[in-house]
Specification:
about 90 residues; mainly alpha; about 55% helix; elongated
């Protein structure tokens, strides 16, 4: 009977070994990183605002575009192409 007891102990270990081999044989699951929702940058929002302004008539559209420039160009005047600085003056007096 001692032989039967050793045989019974061997069965669960062989099943456990087979399960471990199955787990080891599976490829690792790729880790997916969730991306935070992208927020549009300053110039994308500025371009959208100017595009909305272009739907207005000439005078309202002009003021709308200038308002958008004042809102989005603060600190970027003369640096960003969307925010030109004033033209240099030739007046030397």
């Amino acid at each position: 009977m001692a032989t039967d007891a050793r045989h019974l102990d061997a069965a669960p270990n062989s099943e456990q070994a087979a399960a471990n081999e199955t787990v080891a044989a599976l490829p690792p699951m790729p880790v997916t990183q969730t991306q935070e929702p992208s927020t549009p940058d300053r110039w994308q929002v500025f371009t959208a605002a100017v595009t909305r302004c272009e739907r207005e008539n000439a005078l309202v559209g002009f003021f709308c575009k200038e308002s958008a420039r004042l809102q989005y160009c603060d600190g970027h005047w003369g640096v960003a192409p969307q925010c030109p600085s004033g033209a240099p003056s030739n007046n030397t007096r």
